[in-house]
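Work package 3, deliverable 3.1, input record:
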Amino acid sequence: MRRPGGKGLGLGLMTGFLFLVFMFPFFMVLVNSAKGPFEVTDSPLAMPADWSLLFANIGKIWTSPTVKYQASFIASLLVTAGSLVLINILSSQAAWALVRARTRTSNAIFLVFVAAMVIPFQIVMFPLLTWFRTVSEVTGIPLLRNYAGILLAYVGFGMSQSIFMFHGFIKSIPLELEEAATIDGCARHEIFWRIISPILRPIHATVLVLNGIWIWNDYLLPLLVLGKGNDLMTIPLAISNFAGAYVKQWDLIMTAILMAMVPVVVFFLVAQKSIIRGMVAGSIK
Amino acid sequence: MRLKRDHSLVFWLFLAPVLFAFAMVIVVPFFLGVWYSFTDWSSSPRTGAGLAFVGLANYARSFADPSFLYSFLITVGYTVANMAVINVVAFSLALLVTSRIPLRKFYRAGFFLPNLIGGLVLGYIWQFIFNSAIPQLGAALGIEAWSRPENLWLAKSLPALFAIVVAGTWQYAGYIMMIYVAAIENVPLELHEAAQIDGAGPLRRLASITLPMASQAFTITLFLTLVNSFKQFDVNISLTSGGPSTIFLDKPIFGTELLAMNIYNTAFISNDLAMGQARAVIFFLVLAVIATVQVAVNKKREIEL
């Protein structure tokens, strides 16, 4: 639908200008990734003298032992994908159980989950470390500095909001659907996997996108649970390792940032529609 | 009845994993943390000594600590500034990308893109821009003042705080814009057409139709920007690392250390876990109260469609 009003050309130019302002930082990263260390400080705004330096710099970061790009990328991928799969499956089935149970206990549990959404990470982050350490010592299952701990942490933090979203959506699915399936001989858990889950696809997309962006870019939680000087690093940890060094090599830092950004940007351009649709729908609910 | 019993078992099985994660990651640490804030908890193990109960000492010490008071002050200031700037920018962008200009969808995606870049990476990008690119820009435009080192944004506390606002706006405006876009596009066209027939110009229609109809969106966007600004940490660390030193109440402190960073530094740099935890409790309470008030106030002014 066309909105009435607005002179096309003037507003178009203004928006275009604002767009260029917004794209400026990306331009800075790209252009300065192809420069040498002195060129970067001398002329940060200028186009690079020699674009082939870009590939030389990428090579340096690719093989850098501080950044450990391949390992960090895979670690980020595993942590994010693993957390997303767990959060989506566990939250959707929990939300369904809470909606269909309709007991006072289930309502109380749901309210507690919702209230927990307000809890900022800061208030639990220190005790979490001590608690994980205690549990690791008592049970012999290490929870710090490895995948198990960080996946558990992300599930714990992501489930409140995710259950909230699934809950609202599931409430609108008519009970008759499940009753008909029961009459047809479906067991309770089959009803969830075969009938409810497919209907939940749009909300699954929303939850995936919202949690995915947060987990992929998260810095504080991995910093605490994985710790510094760990072989296991996610990309934000790797970048901070490199860029936080005392002597800042901005040409290489920009290259590292470029290599951290490109996968996300590519993914976005490919999955644009679903991502935007998912984010907005989720927020309004 | 057998059906009812099987029913309950499946439900509890479905709930078990999240209850476990919830208990392990949120419930236990939360109550442990509140308890620890009343003790002399620290990371250094003391042989034979248990945890001593110190009552409200950690809280009292925090409120007497200039760095905590300063962090609190600038976090409130930063939150207000950030909320204002982000929402004004986002709403303006939303108006622009919903008007009849070419390449609307392209611009929308472009404005949204920074939101996908993590706060940490973003902070380093903007550190480079403020320290290197802006002086160069000044040189190119002939504004000599921009090139002088003492005029760098990140050299003094107040401009450095604004720098964090700029970086934060770049990161969030696109996302908030999308929420406003959905609200603006939801306004029925007939309302605008009827107003136009009555002679209302675009500004009048904006004030009397678009803004009120977006009240639900405002509740959400104000809540999101409030909470995100108050909790700002990643950009803080990478853009300013706490920023230039300054003096406050006769004590040298970090000039741009927002609350989240202050809590982190209290625990890990000053090695005072118990006080850091007490500050985290204060942080949580303040945030919970302000957020609840904000949502309650906004809900009253919402217009149900």
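Chain A is about 75% helix and 0% strand.
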